[in-house]
Amino acid sequence: MDSTGRSKLKLSVVACLYVIIVLYSSVEQVSCGAERILTQVRPRIVENHSRSKHDENPVQKSVQRCPRRCLCYFNVAYCASKQLTILPAKFPPGIKYLHLSKNKLKIIPRDKLGMYPSLNTIDLSDNFISQDGVKRRSFANLALLKRLHLNGNKFTHFPSSLPPSVVELKLDNNSISVIQSESTQPLGNVTSMDLSRNKLTNAGIRNSAFLAFRSLVNLDLSFNKFESFPKDLSSSIEDIRLNNNRIKYVTTGVFRFPAKIHHLNMRGNKLKETSFSYQSWANMDKLIFLDLSENNLLFVPGVLPRSLSILLLESNNIENILEWSFSSVPKITQIRLSFNNIRHIDPAAFASLQNLQYLDLAHNQLLHYPSNMPINLQAVFVEFNAISNVHGDAFCPAYAQTTFQRSKLNMIVLIGNPVNRRSLFSAASYCLSSAEVLVFD
Ligand SMILES: *[C@@H]1O[C@H](CO)[C@@H](O)[C@H](O)[C@H]1NC(C)=O
Ligand SMILES: *[C@@H]1O[C@H](CO)[C@@H](O)[C@H](O)[C@H]1NC(C)=O
Ligand SMILES: *[C@@H]1O[C@H](CO)[C@@H](O)[C@H](O)[C@H]1NC(C)=O
User: Fold this and answer.
1) Which residues does UniProt assign to the signal peptide (predicted)?
2) 37 and 162 share a domain?
3) Contact 152 CB / ligand 2 (< 6 Å)
């Protein structure tokens, strides 16, 4: 049997026996890989409820006092969902973790929580607290407080008098429209802040109020009402979520100094290709992940940060991929363009992207399998297009020396295309090696 015949045989075995199972498990693996990247970029802080060796022994603890409707266990008091309207008293003296979420609290009385200076975490989420319910000494004397959860309350302004020791601050799901710099000034130790699902606008951020967060790493501003990228952010930020706002422009002045930001989510805004200029990305030369999905892009934006590794452009209105569409992102490893209206791809568009490994063109209107793919590409997703013919050299890498040069492709997903099998088998006999998975229906 000649090598072409062998390749055909392997191909049909793969196609007939493994079709769907191989496909879906592999797809999952690849998208898991992508998720893993995301998780690495956004570290989560995990609460540690285990006892430190300085805690008193459990026998002593079990006879400790505890408010009537709460459960106390070691250094934890659990009072969630108890219809509480006033803050309970008489917690165990060494308490570290206080759970008060889903109650009906409106006011945090002054100096009450300060009676428990060992508090590390207070969860006051889903209550009825507004800025009027937080007094000047509501959180006084809590020098060890690291985590404060005030999400799902009634704040319309960023509360003042929050404890300066706080590292993780949750204020999401309130109605905050104004942030004054006087209230943010003491919060220089906050590393993770969630302000998603509020009513923030650009004008509501007064006097560069965000600059005070000198240690901020993770900032969530998603589901607000920003119309342009908020200015004067702290250069310490590594990960910012601005998805689901109304952003039309990324103007200059986002970061005053070279910033550490590597992960930026701007999905679900009103961005066009004209929304960006070279100045938009000033001081963002560490950015590796950019999500511009679900915007109003007709073309791939011509000016993107050169450092990008992962670019998401799903669910826009892109019709054509031009020769220079990706020339501003030479280091790109992953491009996702699914759910656009792509009909035409210039043969030179991807060819010289030496680092590109993953290309998603699913749910577009391609008539041909895109050829001239870069040498290191490993996975191509083109399901649900209108691909019928696969050209003979379609799987051969761009600038191949011979028609037999093997590509590194190990996954090609062709489901939901009216593929002509004869053209597919013939194309596959050239540059695919036997380990590759090829799927169609
Ligand atoms: C939790 O804290 C204990 C004691 O302080 C420590 O030994 C343990 O490693 C911590 N666990 C995690 C997951 O941080
Ligand atoms: C927002 O907060 C309310 C309580 O104020 C809660 O019922 C709701 O589940 C929260 N929504 C989200 C998305 O967290
Ligand atoms: C802020 O963090 C620094 C470094 O961890 C620490 O020394 C300082 O005491 C913290 N400030 C407050 C107010 O807790």
Assistant:
1) 1-32
2) no
3) yes
Please say whether the beta carbons of 431 and 405 come within 8 A.
Answer: yes
Residue 289, domain member (yes or no):
no
Q: Are residues 27 and 88 in the same domain?
A: no
Q: In terms of domains, do 30 and 159 share one?
A: no
Q: Provide the residue range defining the domain that includes 145.
A: 66-181+189-206
Question: How many domains does the chain fold into?
Answer: 2
**174 and 94 both lie in a single domain:** yes
Question: Do 399 and 436 lie in a common domain?
Answer: yes
- Whether residues 35 and 74 fall in one domain: no
Q: How far is the CA of 338 from the centre of ligand 1 (A)?
A: 43
Q: Are the C-beta atoms of residues 365 and 337 closer than 8 Å to each other?
A: no
For ligand 2, say whether the CB of 126 is within 6 Å of any of its atoms. yes
Shared domain check, 176 and 89: yes
| pLDDT tens digits along 130-187 | 999 999 999 999 999 999 999 999 999 999 999 999 999 999 999 999 999 999 999 9
CA angle in degrees (0–180, nearest 5) for 365-369-372? 125
How far is it, in rounded angstroms, from Cα 83 to Cα 69?
A: 9
Establish if 215 belongs to a structural domain. Answer: no
The residues pairing with 147 across neighbouring beta strands, listed in sequence order, are 121, 168
User: 295 in a domain, yes or no?
Assistant: no
**26 and 110 share a domain?**
no
Tokens of 431: 């540059």
Strands 121-123 and 147-149: parallel
388 contact partners, CB below 8 Å, separation of at least 6 = 367, 417, 418, 419, 420, 423
Could you tell me the distance, in angstroms and rounded to a whole number, from the CA of residue 153 to the centre of ligand 2?
8
pLDDT tens sequence across 280-335: 888 899 999 999 999 999 999 998 999 999 999 999 999 999 999 999 999 999 99
